[in-house]
Specification:
The complex is a heterodimer.
Chain A (H helix, E strand, L loop, with lengths): L1 E9 L6 H12 L12 E7 L4 H12 L5 E8 L1
Antiparallel strand pairs in A: 1-2, 1-3
Chain B lengths: L1 E6 L6 H11 L3 E6 L10 E4 L20 H11 L3 E4 L1 H8 L6 E3 L7 E9 L13 E8 L3 E3 L2 H9 L3 E5 L17 E5 L5 E4 L16 H5 L1 H7 L1
Parallel strand pairs in B: 1-2, 1-3, 3-4, 4-11
Antiparallel strand pairs in B: 5-8, 6-7, 6-9, 9-10, 10-11
The chains are: A alpha+beta, B alpha/beta.
């Protein structure tokens, strides 16, 4: 069984409204040195006989929207 | 008697709650912005439903850290009435004022329907008028109440489960959202704080299809009599 972790995040140029709201909430809790918060998704995939190429294909076909998001893939032990 | 209706970016049941209190129940209500740090002069707090801050992170998570929540906590500790409805219930659990959490409905569908609920006992100001079955609307995506076993045992053992979902004749029924033991609303140990997913403010006048909700909202007056 192979296990992968896929991180999907909004491209830096786009407004991440959830990240901005959390950023402001952290400021109001006194964490004033927080400069920026970006929120993305972590997708964990377990599969039989998988390889990184297939995960990459999944990202392109479904998991991420290349217009607005970037992704990275990590192989988990 | 004056009740604070808390408004946060994303509140959307605030006007319904205001209407129910002021027009249906005849209780003075005032909107209060979530950045308020003093609720002096108020006798109770209502945290209405909505999708505060877009429910970013988790339902109610950011609103639960708003400045006004310190006042909610103080009212809760002082034994004054606090009612959290739907997102307001989520905020009370996120703030740690009530135990447990509200998670995605078991069937993974947004539920918008009338629900039958009944009071488990009538010892709290919120449930003293609630004998029999009440018909109250629900409208939520994350209304499935869960808590660890110890909290559930304590809630049930100490009579702090305020409402459970039931069938039309009051018999036991699975919660439409899959809540643990069909729990629809819970109390704090002082019984002055009630959090519930069903919307009593949407059942506050016959022209809305029913006014069973007023029997719950009257808890604001009852709590202040104690």
């Amino acid at each position: 069984m192979s296990r992968y972790r896929v991180f999907v995040t909004l491209k830096p140029a786009l407004l991440d409204s959830a990240g901005r709201a959390v950023n402001d909430a952290l400021h109001s809790l006194g964490f004033e040195s927080v400069d920026d918060v970006r929120i993305g998704k972590l997708i964990e995939i377990s599969m039989k006989d998988g390889d990184r190429g297939q995960i990459d294909e999944m990202c392109r076909k479904l998991l991420a929207n290349p217009v607005v998001e970037t992704y990275s893939i990590e192989e988990a032990s | 008697m004056k009740i604070a209706v808390v408004r946060t970016p994303g509140s959307n049941c605030d006007q319904d709650a205001f209407f129910a209190l002021q027009d249906s129940l005849g209780v003075e209500a005032r909107y209060v912005w979530h950045e308020e740090t003093s609720l002096q002069g108020f006798d109770g707090i209502l945290i209405p439903g909505g999708f505060t801050y877009g429910d970013y992170l988790r339902g109610g998570a950011i609103a639960a850290r708003a400045p006004v929540i310190d006042e909610v906590r103080r009212f809760a500790a002082d034994g004054r009435p606090v009612l959290g409805i739907c997102n307001g219930f989520q905020i009370l659990t996120e703030a740690g004022i009530l135990p447990g959490a509200l998670v995605r409905n078991a069937e993974r569908r947004f539920l918008c329907m009338n629900a039958h609920i009944k009071a488990v006992d009538c010892k709290s100001p919120w449930t003293r008028d609630c004998d029999g079955v009440l018909s109250i609307p629900i409208a939520h995506n994350e209304g499935r109440y869960i808590a660890d076993d110890e909290d559930v045992r304590r809630l049930e053992g100490e009579g702090l489960v305020a409402f459970v979902y039931c069938d039309a004749s009051g018999g036991p029924a699975e919660a439409p959202n899959g809540s643990t033991h069909s729990i629809a609303g819970i109390l704090n140990s002082g019984r002055n704080v009630l959090g519930m997913m069903p919307h009593p403010e949407r059942a506050s006048s016959p022209i809305l299809g029913g006014d069973d909700g007023l029997r719950i909202l009257r808890g604001f007056s009852a709590a202040n009599l104690v």
